[in-house]
Amino acid sequence: xxxxxxxxxxxxxxxxxxxxxxxxxxxxxxxxxxxxxxxxxxxxxxxxxxxxxxxxxxxxxxxxxxxxxxxxxxxxxxxxxxxxxxxxxxxxxxxxxxxxxxxxxxxxxxxxxxxxxxxxxxxxxxxxxxxxxxxxxxxxxxxxxxxxxxxxxxxxxxxxxxxxxxxxxxxxxxxxxxxxxxx
Length: 183
What we know:
The protein is an alpha+beta fold. The protein contains 4 helices and 9 strands; from the N terminus they run E-E-H-H-H-E-E-E-E-E-E-H-E.
């Protein structure tokens, strides 16, 4: 079963509760400001969505950023593409940005996704001696038309894949490979 979101205030832009939660953590042998710079670039952080994948049914998504390039509160990012031959898309907006410690973004409007609905993502970075620890978290709801057991099972696996892939991509960008730890 999904873990409940730890923060009661986790909500979508329209106020929809985000009852499900997944996160992944990894330590990276790089300064926190350098790791934050990677996280602060939506195209690099969402790179796993731009690659064709069996988890995307052979599809992928294209990332478009506004003139603020995803690096200011209020900045918008749009992901569009196909999964399993179906058109999908999501608009997100940065709602909190505190370099080099935290960045938070969430969906705006109604996402056109297959297995998850509205979501909020967060990247928290802690400075360690000679390294950084990053935790990527997603709080999410199911799409309004998918509430069954199978939908929950698929959503959980997809959300877990997203956060684990993000932390692994960050580690890879800094020349290391390592397992994430669920948080």
